Each structure stands twice: as structure tokens, then as C-alpha cells.
Amino acid sequence: MSTKFSWELNPMDSMADFGAELNEQLPPLVRKLLTQRGIRSPQRAEQFLRPRLADLGDPFDMREMDAAVERIFRAVDHGERVCIYGDYDVDGVSSVTLLHTILTAYGVEPACFIPVRTKEGYGLSKDGISHAVEACGGKPDLIITVDCGTSSVDEVAYLNSIGIDVIVLDHHESSTRGRPPAVAVVNAKLEGDSPLTYLCSAGVVFKLAHAMLKRRRLQDLT
Fold first, then answer.
1. Is the pLDDT of residue 40 over 80?
2. Which of 6, 35, 38, 82 has a 20 to 30 A CA-CA distance from 151?
């Protein structure tokens, strides 16, 4: 089978020595992959293989993350109706699932809506919004879009006009019309100089989860 892709392996002069304990635990292939990634000390290997939130960068470095967290906690504290509006691909479904888990842990019972491509098309659309409201059992106070929404200027404006706040968690490019009028648009590609433009939408949702935990730690976490 032909393919347009070709793999280029990073050069490796020698296998890194991660110490007797890790060398015994790690298969040679894992040690090789770590070495190729420039990870050569036991400490860096442990950090890579067993990451902690404390080792990650501050999620509030993402522009508008603070506004997104503040609005979500307002929904939590006031028992507002929340709807998650996602995309139908793997990233979209993963993002919806992760965000649903996060909000549920904070006491919100969000409705979820994923458009059918042949019916509602991609992203926010007139039909999609109508069906999402139905899925929520009525007009929600807040719609959080994941893996879509960055270019939905008219659709977000319409939601605002009928009294629905919008938060966009996305990784797609913006349109020539600029930022949609949402409460918050958390998308590294709108920042220009962000080192996080590689994040998919599930990664953006993960950053949101980290930010929420930093702002308000869940009681049952250790």
C-alpha cells in the first residue's frame, strides 16, 4: 500500500542509562523512545512517564481561561442549565466526554449534543442550535462548544440575542471576521504567540479541567 508519508527517526548515538531500577522496568523500545526524545536522566524519565499536574504549565496562561472558569463556576453555584455542544469526530467526542466528566464532578448535570453531519452539518448551525436546545430540555443558560465555535460569529451572536451565554473551547483557525462574541474563547491559535497551538480540543478541555482544579479543588480528590 502506497502512502505519501515517510518516517524519519531521530538519531541516537547510544541508549540512555536510566539507572538499574528503571532499566530493569522499562522495555528496550521504551528506553529507546525516551532517548530519542532527549530524555536521558532517571528524573526526567520519571517525570515523563508519571506526570503530575504540578509539572505542567499554568493553564491560566491561556488567554480567556480565567473568564471561562469564572462563568462555569457561576453556572455551578447557581444551578444553571448547561449544554455541551461538540463535533462528531474523535476529538469532538473525546472533548465532550471529558468535559461532561469534569462538570459532573462539580455537581452540574450537563446535556450533551453532537450534530449529525448529514442533518446539521459541522459546528454551530441554525438546525444544530435548535436541536441542542431540545436535547437540553429547554433553553440552557450556558452552551459550551468543544472542537467548534471559533468561526461561528453569527451563531454565537444569535445565542446571545436569545439570552444564552457561550464559551468556546477549540483549536481551529478563526475566520476573517474575527473572534465570535462569546463570554470566552479559549483557543491558543487566536493568541498568535502561544506555545500551545499544538493542542487538540481535548487538550484544551484538559487545560480547562486543570484551571478549574487550581481555582476550586474537589473535596474527594487526594
1. yes
2. 82
